[in-house]
Amino acid sequence: MMVIATNNAPPRLRGRLAVWLLEVRAGVYVGNYGARVREMIWEQLLAGIETGDAVMVWKTPSDQGFDFRTCGTNRRMPVDFDGLNLVRFAPSETRTDGD
Predict the structure, then answer these.
(1) Which of 39, 54, 74, 79 is deepest in the core (most CB within 10 A)?
(2) 59-90 pLDDT, tens per residue?
């Protein structure tokens, strides 16, 4: 199983993803493909995401049972911690110059 969640994706990319995957919610796509097709979809995603962001999650035979990739600017960034994929949440940037 593979899931892709997008934010601010251009309509052209959303249509392209809908060709291969089922859009179960706005910006959330689900499908069941092998590694080769998954890589092809990821390349299409990278080429078309523009200023948006996305995450792809898929099932793997690992300790966690899944793996994921992200692209674009987001406050949640993947971090490898002793072989486990975790997500670091960056605080929002706040202005402190008195403006």
Answers:
(1) 54
(2) 999 888 999 999 988 777 778 777 778 888 87
